[in-house]
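Nucleotidase
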Amino acid sequence: MKEKRFGIDIDGTVTCPASLVPFINEAFSLNITLQDITKYDLAEALNISPDKMRIWFDATEPDIYSSSPLAEGAAAILSKWQQQFHLLFISARRRHLLEITETWFQEKKITYDHLELIGSHNKIEAAKRNKVDIFFEDKHDNAVMLAEELRIPVILFNTPYNQDPIPENVIRVDDWYEADACVQQWIKTNEITPLPAYKKA
């Protein structure tokens, strides 16, 4: 019987964080890598006007989402977890992108118990409503707010744009295999030990 309820972000967490880099390079005649995106705000990170970035993103969003590759290990670990836990995907994507999102999950063969596009980065109410026990996120501010407001552990997938300090119950991981190691420890002991305890040999 499934007991624990996992809240899971999609972009930069289930999808590869570098998914939008080729689109950025093509649109703005750049030659960047993910390492060059050191802030979550793309306009600020790339010194592009916010209006220009917003117009581009609104137009390109469906293509980015429909073609995003999975993050390393996501398929294997989520498939494993599906047998044991409730998987509740809670994303800041806007609701008109639901069909594209559902199709992507079907194509990637990722099953879930709940999928919610809230159209906002504030995931606290959705996480409360869905009685989430642990959350998986890539946005630093979201991770900190969820951990502090809900007093739950949050797994933060390490990226160049989320390197600000984190509280004790936010744990950084480099991939889904490390996330799974954290989860297994949490299930056994009700605690999560910060890295580097889970670093792969």
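thats it. Residues 7 and 135 are 5 Å apart (CA to CA). The first strand starts at residue 5 and ends at 8. bye
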